[in-house]
Recover the amino acids of this structure.
């Protein structure tokens, strides 16, 4: 399932252009020194990847709890269904319920801190911009976190989110250099692909949870559950 994280990151980066593109284009990088500019952009991405890895760790640990409780199969099916529902339910319907209200103050502080770091071109500021950027609410990140939780371990949860983040790096880097080549119409066409990719990943998680005995795609129930005694043939 790990390969799906990178692919989803690549596709999601077109969504990121609209949400986080302005942040990338406003990065306080050195426009006169290409080598330093590249190092600064990498530092920014390292900040984002650190944020993704951190939340991947938390959701991976949560997934590990379900795994040890023997609920990983049901959890995989639930996560797959949740991914599909996020795509199918109209955004206007979801917006009626302010799920972010309990953490609104935290988000406001993150945005305020984010703005203050644009005044400096230091590597520390660029890393913190990326770090804070990574913690901002994002629908694509939420979907990826479902996948991290289904990995059933802290390490794989971190790896899943790192691969997702790495998938967003190429296009987010290109935006800093040549933002004019990615037209609105082209971005809108790619945006239409994102729901299909999310549904496909959701279906993969459902198949995985069903334990149909298909190698790699849907392993048997026996391999999905923790047992007190080994199953030997």
């Amino acid at each position: 399932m790990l390969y799906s994280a990178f692919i989803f990151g690549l596709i999601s980066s077109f969504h990121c252009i609209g949400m986080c593109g302005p942040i990338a284009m406003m990065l306080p990088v050195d426009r006169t020194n290409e080598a330093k500019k590249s190092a600064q952009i990498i530092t920014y991405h390292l900040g984002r990847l650190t944020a993704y890895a951190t939340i991947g760790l938390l959701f991976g640990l949560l997934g590990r709890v379900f795994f040890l409780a023997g609920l990983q199969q049901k959890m995989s099916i639930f996560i797959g269904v949740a991914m599909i529902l996020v795509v199918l339910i109209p955004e206007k319907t979801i917006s009626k319920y302010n799920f972010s209200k309990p953490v609104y103050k935290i988000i406001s502080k993150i945005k305020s801190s984010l703005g203050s770091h644009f005044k400096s071109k230091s590597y520390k500021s660029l890393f913190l911009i990326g770090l804070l950027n990574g913690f901002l609410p994002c629908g694509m990140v939420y979907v990826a976190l479902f996948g991290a939780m289904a990995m059933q371990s802290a390490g794989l949860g971190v790896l899943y989110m790192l691969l997702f983040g790495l998938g967003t790096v190429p296009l987010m880097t290109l935006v800093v250099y040549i933002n004019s080549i990615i037209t609105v119409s082209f971005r809108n066409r790619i945006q239409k692909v994102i729901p299909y990719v999310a549904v496909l990943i959701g279906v993969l998680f459902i198949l995985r949870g069903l334990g149909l005995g298909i190698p790699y795609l849907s392993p048997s129930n026996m391999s999905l559950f923790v047992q007190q005694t080994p199953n030997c043939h």
Summary: The chain has a mean pLDDT of 76. The chain has twelve helices and no strands. The two ends are 27 Å apart (CA to CA). The first helix runs from residue 2 to 19.
